[in-house]
């Protein structure tokens, strides 16, 4: 269990080491190709030191890596801020967003699929502007209106991943409490429930409700997110949010445990079709 940047460095280093090995190079040979000392390559591969995006490019060129999707993902893991593309929009908010939040957004923007259990609030990718504003204001006390506006703007910008080509595949299990908790007042909540109904009909979204009637379940320990990547499963990661930070779990046994937990939650939850009816019924009675 580590903080995001440390996990990212280790994952990036492991991937670069695998690419070097596939290219048939020793660390010393790789170092000579790019004009470095062998110790620098070793530090990068073990994750003991950070690496600049420009250095990642040098290594990828030396290893003959031409897959543009893989190159872009590894550059994001190096926290590239010079890509200028859609995937790097969050760097414009570096002075506002804490590093752990930027780290989360970068993984979210590059993931193929996202599985999430939410026990208290609607997932950020499915929030309406009014709901996002109410949640943010309640979660972070003393925000100025300008900063609040910016954080809501970021929350809404994140939702572009659901409209990408291809879009992020989102599977969400929502505890019934998420639907019952009145955030922002009756009007805001009614519109949010309508938004959930709309989202549940999207082909890239699988939404399930875990009703109170299901009783105690494995998710009572708290919400979590699992990010999956099509390029390599070695980059898959579980994210746990805390009040002041986020923790990232990347060991295979942790990933397996949370994947099995999510699968169990899906079994105990209502089907997507019944969940849609449940949300629509809740909205009608709101």
TrEMBL record:
Coiled-coil regions, chain positions: none
Pfam families according to UniProt: DUF5753, HTH_31
TM region positions: none
Species of provenance: Streptomyces violarus
Protein name (Swiss-Prot/TrEMBL): Transcriptional regulator with XRE-family HTH domain
Sample GO molecular function, one term: DNA binding
InterPro entries: Cro/C1-type_HTH, DUF5753, Lambda_DNA-bd_dom_sf
Residue stretches making up the HTH cro/C1-type domain: 16-70
PROSITE patterns reported for this sequence: HTH_CROC1
Domain of life (superkingdom): Bacteria
């Amino acid at each position: 269990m580590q903080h995001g940047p440390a996990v990212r460095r280790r994952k990036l280093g492991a991937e670069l080491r695998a690419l070097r090995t596939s290219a048939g190079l020793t660390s010393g040979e790789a170092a000579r190709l790019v004009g470095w000392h062998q110790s620098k390559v070793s530090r990068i591969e073990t994750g003991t030191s950070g690496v600049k995006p420009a250095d990642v490019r040098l290594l990828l060129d030396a290893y003959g890596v031409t897959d543009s999707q893989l190159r872009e993902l590894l550059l994001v893991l190096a926290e590239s801020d010079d890509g200028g593309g859609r995937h790097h929009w969050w760097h414009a908010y570096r002075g506002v967003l804490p590093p752990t939040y930027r780290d989360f957004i970068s993984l979210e923007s590059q993931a193929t699929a996202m599985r999430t259990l939410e026990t208290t609030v609607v997932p950020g990718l499915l929030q309406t502007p009014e709901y996002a504003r109410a949640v943010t204001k309640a979660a972070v006390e003393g925000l100025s209106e300008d900063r609040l506006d910016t954080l809501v703007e970021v929350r809404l910008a994140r939702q572009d991943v659901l409209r990408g080509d291809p879009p992020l595949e989102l599977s969400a299990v929502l505890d019934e409490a998420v639907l019952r908790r009145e955030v922002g007042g009756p009007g805001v909540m009614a519109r949010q429930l309508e938004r959930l109904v709309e989202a549940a009909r999207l082909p890239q979204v699988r939404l399930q409700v875990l009703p109170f009637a299901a009783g105690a379940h494995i998710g009572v320990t708290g919400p979590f997110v699992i990010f999956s990547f099509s390029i390599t499963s070695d980059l898959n990661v579980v994210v746990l949010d805390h009040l002041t930070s986020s923790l990232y779990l990347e060991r295979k046994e942790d990933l397996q445990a949370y994947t099995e937990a999510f699968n169990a939650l899906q079994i105990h939850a209502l089907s997507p079709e019944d969940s849609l009816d449940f949300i629509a019924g809740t909205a009608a009675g709101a």
